[in-house]
Amino acid sequence: MVKVLYFAGLREAVGQSSEQLALPAEIGNVGQLHAHLAARGGAWEALARTKNLRIAVNQQMAAMDASIRDGDEVAFFPPVTGG
Question: pTM of the predicted model, to two decimals?
Protein backbone atom coordinates (compact mmCIF):
# COMPACT_ATOMS: atom_id res chain seq x y z
CA MET A 1 0.00 0.00 0.00
CA VAL A 2 1.05 3.57 -0.66
CA LYS A 3 -0.47 6.64 0.89
CA VAL A 4 -1.39 9.21 -1.75
CA LEU A 5 -1.93 12.82 -0.65
CA TYR A 6 -3.68 15.52 -2.68
CA PHE A 7 -3.25 19.21 -1.92
CA ALA A 8 -4.93 22.52 -2.84
CA GLY A 9 -6.93 22.43 -6.09
CA LEU A 10 -6.23 18.72 -6.60
CA ARG A 11 -7.80 17.93 -3.22
CA GLU A 12 -10.87 19.91 -4.23
CA ALA A 13 -11.04 18.28 -7.67
CA VAL A 14 -10.83 14.67 -6.46
CA GLY A 15 -12.89 15.29 -3.32
CA GLN A 16 -10.44 13.84 -0.83
CA SER A 17 -7.17 14.76 0.77
CA SER A 18 -5.66 11.28 0.84
CA GLU A 19 -6.17 7.61 0.10
CA GLN A 20 -4.47 4.30 0.69
CA LEU A 21 -3.80 2.49 -2.57
CA ALA A 22 -2.66 -1.05 -3.19
CA LEU A 23 0.26 -0.57 -5.54
CA PRO A 24 -0.26 -2.59 -8.74
CA ALA A 25 2.80 -4.69 -9.64
CA GLU A 26 3.43 -2.77 -12.87
CA ILE A 27 3.79 0.57 -11.05
CA GLY A 28 7.33 1.29 -9.92
CA ASN A 29 7.69 5.05 -10.22
CA VAL A 30 5.79 8.29 -9.69
CA GLY A 31 5.01 8.79 -13.38
CA GLN A 32 3.37 5.38 -13.61
CA LEU A 33 1.33 6.08 -10.49
CA HIS A 34 0.34 9.48 -11.87
CA ALA A 35 -0.85 7.89 -15.15
CA HIS A 36 -2.71 5.15 -13.25
CA LEU A 37 -4.58 7.69 -11.13
CA ALA A 38 -5.39 10.01 -14.05
CA ALA A 39 -6.73 7.03 -16.02
CA ARG A 40 -9.56 6.74 -13.49
CA GLY A 41 -11.21 9.51 -15.51
CA GLY A 42 -13.66 12.12 -14.31
CA ALA A 43 -12.29 14.27 -11.49
CA TRP A 44 -9.03 12.30 -11.57
CA GLU A 45 -8.17 13.83 -14.93
CA ALA A 46 -7.27 16.97 -12.93
CA LEU A 47 -3.95 15.23 -12.25
CA ALA A 48 -3.22 15.09 -15.97
CA ARG A 49 -4.41 18.66 -16.61
CA THR A 50 -2.38 20.30 -13.84
CA LYS A 51 0.59 22.17 -15.30
CA ASN A 52 3.88 22.09 -13.37
CA LEU A 53 2.60 19.43 -10.98
CA ARG A 54 4.83 19.05 -7.93
CA ILE A 55 5.47 15.69 -6.30
CA ALA A 56 7.00 14.58 -3.05
CA VAL A 57 7.89 11.02 -2.07
CA ASN A 58 8.23 10.51 1.66
CA GLN A 59 8.28 14.30 2.11
CA GLN A 60 11.18 14.82 -0.32
CA MET A 61 10.65 16.60 -3.63
CA ALA A 62 10.76 14.07 -6.46
CA ALA A 63 10.58 13.78 -10.24
CA MET A 64 8.21 11.61 -12.25
CA ASP A 65 10.91 8.96 -12.62
CA ALA A 66 11.40 8.61 -8.84
CA SER A 67 10.97 5.04 -7.64
CA ILE A 68 8.14 4.16 -5.28
CA ARG A 69 7.35 1.03 -3.32
CA ASP A 70 4.93 -0.28 -0.74
CA GLY A 71 4.90 1.84 2.39
CA ASP A 72 5.79 5.09 0.62
CA GLU A 73 3.86 8.34 0.86
CA VAL A 74 3.36 10.18 -2.44
CA ALA A 75 2.03 13.74 -2.45
CA PHE A 76 0.72 15.60 -5.49
CA PHE A 77 0.24 19.34 -5.41
CA PRO A 78 -0.12 22.14 -7.91
CA PRO A 79 2.34 25.03 -7.92
CA VAL A 80 1.45 27.65 -5.35
CA THR A 81 1.81 31.35 -5.83
CA GLY A 82 1.76 33.97 -3.15
CA GLY A 83 1.71 37.69 -2.86
Answer: 0.90
Report the pLDDT value the prediction gives residue 56, as an integer from 0 to 100.
Answer: 97
Asked whether residue 83 is assigned to any structural domain, the reply reads no
Is residue 79, in this structure, part of any structural domain at all?
A: no
Domain-embedded: residue 82:
no
DSSP string, the chain: -EEEEE-HHHHHHHT-SEEEE---TT--BHHHHHHHHHTT-GGGGHHHH-TT-EEEETTEE--TT-B--TT-EEEEE------
Cα radius of gyration rounded to whole Å, the chain:
12
